[in-house]
Amino acid sequence: MKEASSTKPIGQNLIKLISSVCFSLFIFSVLLFTVISITYQPPNPWLEFAKALTKVFTEVENASFKNDASILQTGEDLVALAPAVSTTAVLPITTDTIEKSEEKIVDSSSTFDYDAT
Question: What residue ranges are annotated as transmembrane (predicted)?
């Protein structure tokens, strides 16, 4: 009969040792990943968005008309080209001023010759 030896072969002990070390590394990496994921706090994107909106709505800008150097002319550009009118000499609109302006319109329309010959 064979004698039962109390020592295991070195190869089996080495395989068990390597597998235990690998399993320990796996468990340690899982624990490390868990701790990092729990403590990580990413920047709040809504906070940056709210700051940008607050800046846009609280900025004070001059609301006057500005000259535009673009190709298309807008009403703002035409106001800049118009002669300056004194705001202190504004007359109230009454029936007399309306009648006078109507007379001017009628007089100016009568000067046109609509006869197309």
Answer: 21-40
pLDDT in tens, 57-100: 887 766 566 665 667 666 665 665 556 555 555 667 888 888 88
**Is residue 34 in some structural domain?**
yes
Report the predicted TM-score, pTM, of the whole model to 2 decimal places.
0.34
Q: What's the confidence (pLDDT) of residue 41?
A: 87
Domain range for 47: 11-54
Residue 52's alpha-carbon distances to 44, 49, 61, 63, in angstroms, are 13, 5, 16, 21
Contact (CB, 8 A) for 33 and 26: no
Q: Does residue 11 sit in helix, strand or coil?
A: helix
In angstroms, the Cα distances linking 1 to 4, 6, 9 are 9, 16, 19
On whether residue 80 sits in a domain, the answer given is: no
* C-alpha closest to that of 55 among 64, 65, 47: 47
